[in-house]
Each structure stands twice: as structure tokens, then as C-alpha cells.
Write a structure and sequence with these properties.
The protein has 197 residues and is α+β, with helices and mostly antiparallel strands. It has five helices and five strands; from the N terminus they run H-E-E-E-H-H-H-E-E-H. The protein starts with 7 loop residues before the first helix and ends with a helix.
């Protein structure tokens, strides 16, 4: 069964998975927004596969200024190693989709789902760890220092940190990722049931 050749429609769906993954280079994966009395209009940042940008031109600079006052490290792309290797991990997954399109076997779709599951778990853990380190490893000499206080943003949802409301939500890239994973699950279901084109 695992060596079964994919149907024509399933092959094209695998190619669609590759296209969705390729689009991740061009859209943000995640968005973190902040609202504070000194920034009532709000500010935020987008997390991409290969970079971090502000919601608007000066947002990242303003977030780093705010972080300085409460003792958090500045958010600098070069200090985040994941942004250096994630584009290569994504390229590996895109290549996997292309190989599966040309040499289509059901076991390769299972491998793709396995990659999605493992990389997804690793990605969420790594993101949580990144937020934890930024929110807990504070400079004790910061202008605003409250013993026992941490500033870890939520992994998902909203959280009040002193007078700052922080919200963290998936963005377009994460929707593309879930769509790609759902397509792979659909292909497996379709092929196991023996649905013909």
C-alpha cells in the first residue's frame, strides 16, 4: 500500500502543497501586537520565515525602546539563529513536494506529514522558548525593574503585562501551512480509500 503510486489528482495536490510552502517566503507566519498608554494606536511586529519586521515603519524600533526600559534584550534578526536556517528547512520541504510530484508514492506523502508534525512541534516549542527567554532574562539595571515580574508574550491570544496589552496570533503564512498539512491528510485519506480520478 505504501508503495502505491499516487493518482493524477493527488500528484497535482502535492504540487499545490509545494506552491503553498513557497508562498511562505512572501508572507508573515505570525503577528505580535502591543497596545500601551504611550502607544495608544498600537504597534507590532511580523515574524517571517527569514526576518522580523514591524507592522509599520518604526514599530520594531519603538518595541526595542520599550523593551529597553523594562530590561528585555533588543529584537535583532542576527541574534535569532532560527531565521538563518528556517529558509533552508522550508526549501527542503518544497523539494520534498517536488520529488513526490515526479516520483509519486504514497509513503512519500506519509513522510511529508511526518515532517509537518515534527517541524510544527519543534517550531511552536522554539517560538515559546524564544518568547520565554525574551520575557524572563531581564537586565536587573533596567530603568523599570519589578522583582518577580516577567514580560513573556502569550504564545497565542492576549495577555496584560503591567500596562501593556500583548496579543499574539497566527498570520497568513500559518494558514498556508495548515492548509498544506490538511491537503496532505486529504491525499492520504483519498489514496487509502482508493478514490479514482
Amino acid at each position: 500500500m505504501l508503495l502505491k503510486k499516487l493518482s493524477s489528482r493527488s500528484r497535482w495536490l502535492v504540487l499545490l502543497v509545494g506552491v503553498l510552502l513557497a508562498m511562505l517566503y512572501f508572507v508573515p507566519l505570525w503577528s505580535i501586537g502591543l497596545v500601551a498608554p504611550q502607544y495608544p494606536e498600537g504597534m507590532g511586529m511580523y515574524i517571517w520565515v527569514q526576518k522580523i519586521t514591524g507592522h509599520s515603519e518604526f514599530d520594531l524600533k519603538n518595541i526595542n525602546l520599550l523593551n529597553h526600559y523594562i530590561g528585555m534584550s533588543p529584537i535583532i534578526e542576527k541574534s535569532i539563529p532560527e531565521l538563518q536556517f528556517m529558509p533552508w528547512v522550508l526549501a527542503y520541504m518544497i523539494c520534498g513536494a517536488l520529488v513526490t510530484f515526479f516520483f509519486s508514492r504514497l509513503f512519500m506523502v506519509f513522510l511529508g506529514i511526518g515532517n509537518f508534525f515534527l517541524l510544527g512541534l519543534a517550531g511552536f516549542y522554539d517560538f515559546w522558548k524564544w518568547e520565554y527567554n525574551y520575557g524572563h532574562n531581564l537586565n536587573p539595571d533596567a530603568p523599570i525593574s519589578i522583582p518577580g515580574m516577567s514580560y513573556q508574550p502569550p504564545l497565542i491570544g492576549c495577555k496584560t503585562l503591567l500596562n501593556i496589552e500583548a496579543c499574539s496570533w497566527p498570520h497568513v503564512g500559518t494558514i498556508f501551512l495548515f492548509a498544506a498539512g490538511a491537503i496532505l491528510l486529504y491525499i492520504i485519506f483519498r489514496e487509502i480509500r482508493g478514490v479514482h480520478d
